[in-house]
Write a structure and sequence with these properties.
Number of strands: 4
Strand order of the largest sheet: 1-2
Helix content: 25-40%
Radius of gyration: 28 Å
Oligomer: single chain
Strand content: 15-25%
Largest sheet: 2 strands, antiparallel
Length: about 70
């Protein structure tokens, strides 16, 4: 009878512990990151996100100075 009571208390404790933990599958708490396209600078080969890359005649560049250098 004591063993049954101990098992019941352990089961209740385990159930309470699991129900109090935050769930890992809740997508509302974890922000989703968007994938970005990344280009390598045609002159120095540094990787730059598409939003920051400068487009030139010979490719993408990390800064205006590299674009002018490569195209002159």
């Amino acid at each position: 009878m004591k063993l049954l009571l101990v098992l019941a208390v352990l089961a209740l404790g385990l159930w309470l512990w699991r129900s109090a933990r935050p769930r890992a599958d809740s997508s509302s708490e974890t922000p989703q990151r968007q994938a970005q396209t990344v280009f390598a600078c045609a002159l120095c080969h540094v990787h730059v996100p598409q939003a920051e890359a400068l487009v030139g005649l010979r490719g993408y560049y990390c800064c205006e100075q590299h674009r002018q250098q490569a195209e002159s």
